[in-house]
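Technical annex, item 7. During the second reporting period the consortium partners agreed on a shared format for inverse folding records so that results from different sites could be compared directly. Each record opens with the tokenized structure and is followed by the designed sequence. A conforming record, contributed by the partner at site C, is shown below for reference.
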């Protein structure tokens, strides 16, 4: 079948690599794609949020499946648009409708959902201008640090973690007054959870589900988790502390109740659910839901999958996931993200990337790259994810590190400590 994959990051490059391995794939279009995906399929320079244009293209090309990589188009209602239109409803959208995407697009929705279905998470309260006093009371009650979250999408910047009560009170006022625009007209205040984070992914048809390999990502720019938050500086899969007992708790206390909750709310769901979890003394708690795969987690999760991924997507559309067997590579995968100097603040793009062809120990997934006249240039903050496999975490990391040293572009920066805290 002909397939459209939407996105242009390392996640989509890693997804595309699996899609073209499938016996079910005829043509793969990546909209808009990057220099890496151009080698696997056809990059198409369309705006994926222009659903009518996308529908015209999909119909012309006989596309049967669309896989949105990020939450953006899901939140904008791509599934509803295609499925509710006679001409396009035969096209399978691998992601939830707008109603399911609320798990990610509204923090207050997801917190109320978790509370209602007894899913372990931090205690929280939803605040608007009308009940700001309740917000101040909550801040007085909990101990620092204080966690404040804009309800809606705020380009990854909507979460503040503050040590000082006065700062938290001021920030609450500023957020409600429009610090993040509409996104913070409602603010979720949360108790801080102490622990180590991990990312767990399922692929589901709303009833049956496949648990994908778990991963840990490293969000801070600096080594030993210091400095500003980024889109992700590296990832590891599997995660050593996610042992059988811990995973069983995740499945029983979090995955199953989440699916039950969606059913009880009459929210049909197809696609990924990404559980951002905190391991608090051996007990998993949900930090947040996402309705897509993670990035850079995808760059270690997808390469570990050995079975046919399109067959998995297809099985969900015919409610036959129970007959799908996910085969995974038991080795450890690590990925190190090469980023542009200055990221996540000011950085320059358009630097030529050299020595890509010298990489032999890792897979180079393109995140922010662009090809011009046969040369490859940086085109974003996160540039390349270098994924390696080995029997041990240390060996895999060393391969990724050697590759990171070989690639050359002006301003290149990467973290050398990805996964070392897990040893
Ligand atoms: P979120 O966008 O909700 O995932 O929050 C961004 C990041 O803030 C998370 O990945 C965590 O590192 C941190 N965080 C969010 N909520 C909490 C919490 N209640 N306790 C501790 N850390 C949190
Ligand atoms: N790596 C975290 C995310 O994709 O949101």
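Designed sequence (site C submission):
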């Amino acid at each position: 079948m002909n397939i459209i994959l939407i996105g242009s990051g390392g996640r989509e490059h890693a997804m595309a690599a699996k899609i073209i391995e499938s016996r079910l794939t005829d043509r793969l279009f990546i909209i808009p794609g990057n220099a890496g995906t151009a080698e696997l399929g056809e990059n198409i320079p369309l705006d994926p949020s222009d659903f009518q244009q996308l529908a015209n293209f999909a119909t012309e090309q006989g596309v049967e499946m669309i896989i949105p990589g990020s939450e953006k188009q899901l939140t904008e209602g791509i599934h509803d648009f295609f499925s509710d239109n006679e001409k396009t409803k035969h096209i399978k959208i691998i992601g939830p409708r707008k109603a399911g995407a609320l798990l990610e697009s509204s923090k207050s929705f997801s917190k109320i959902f978790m509370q209602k279905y007894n899913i372990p998470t931090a205690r929280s309260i939803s605040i608007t201008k009308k009940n700001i006093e309740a917000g101040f009371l909550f801040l007085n009650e909990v101990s620092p640090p204080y966690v404040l979250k804009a309800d809606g999408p705020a380009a990854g910047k909507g979460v503040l973690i503050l040590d000082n009560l006065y700062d938290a009170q001021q920030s609450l006022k500023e957020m409600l007054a429009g610090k993040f625009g509409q996104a913070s007209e409602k603010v979720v205040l949360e108790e801080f959870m102490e622990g180590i984070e991990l990312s767990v992914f399922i692929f589901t048809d709303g009833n049956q589900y496949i648990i994908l390999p778990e991963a840990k990502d490293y969000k801070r720019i600096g080594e030993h988790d210091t400095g500003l938050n980024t889109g992700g500086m590296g990832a590891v899969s599997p995660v050593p502390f996610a042992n059988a007992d811990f995973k069983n708790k995740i499945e029983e206390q979090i995955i199953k109740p989440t699916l039950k909750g969606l059913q009880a709310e009459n929210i049909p769901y197809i696609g990924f659910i990404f559980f951002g979890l905190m391991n608090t003394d051996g007990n998993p708690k949900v930090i947040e839901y996402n309705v897509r795969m993670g990035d850079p987690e995808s760059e270690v999760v997808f390469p570990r999958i050995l079975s046919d991924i399109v067959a998995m997507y297809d099985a969900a559309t015919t409610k036959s996931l129970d007959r799908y067997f996910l085969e995974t590579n038991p080795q450890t995968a690590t990925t190190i993200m090469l980023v542009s100097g200055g990221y996540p603040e000011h950085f320059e793009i358009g630097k030529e990337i050299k020595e890509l062809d010298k990489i032999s120990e890792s897979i180079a997934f393109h995140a922010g790259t662009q090809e011009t006249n046969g040369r490859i240039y940086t085109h974003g903050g996160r540039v390349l994810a270098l994924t390696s496999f080995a029997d041990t975490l240390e060996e895999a990391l060393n391969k990724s590190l050697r590759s990171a040293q070989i690639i050359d572009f002006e301003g290149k920066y990467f973290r050398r400590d990805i996964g070392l805290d897990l040893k």
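The pocket of adenosine monophosphate (ligand 1) is lined by residues 122, 147, 149, 159, 190, 192-193, 197, 276, 287-288 (CB under 6 Å). Residues 244-264 form the longest helix (21 residues). All partners now use this format for quarterly exchanges.
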